Amino acid sequence: MDIQLEKQEIIEQLLQTNDESLIASIKSLLTKDKKDFWEELSPEEKEGIEEGIEDFKNGNTTSWDDFIINYL
């Protein structure tokens, strides 16, 4: 893979798009500081993760097979 060629192809695609959300997403990826993802989670998401960790610590888990059978 030629990295310079890959970058050029991405630049060409970016120049051709008018999709503002795509441009914003790319800009965010390129300018985003290395932050701890935890700080970007909502309180509800953090609570859910913490509950999951506690469940795991307490042995409250489900096997993959049981999950497939019971939840899908």
Chart the SSEs and their pairings.
Blueprint: H1 3-16, H2 20-31, H3 43-57, H4 64-71
Please provide a written account of the structure.
The two termini are 40 Å apart. The longest helix has 15 residues, at 43-57. By secondary structure, this protein is mainly alpha-helical. It is built from four helices and no strands. It has helices at 3-16, 20-31, 43-57, 64-71.
How much of the polypeptide forms β-strand, as a percent range? under 5%
N/C terminus separation: 40 Å
Structural class: mainly alpha
Number of strands: 0
Name some characteristics of this structure.
72 residues, mainly alpha, 4 helices, 0% strand, elongated
Describe the structure in brief.
The chain is mainly α and 72 residues long. The protein has helices at residues 3-16, 20-31, 43-57, 64-71.
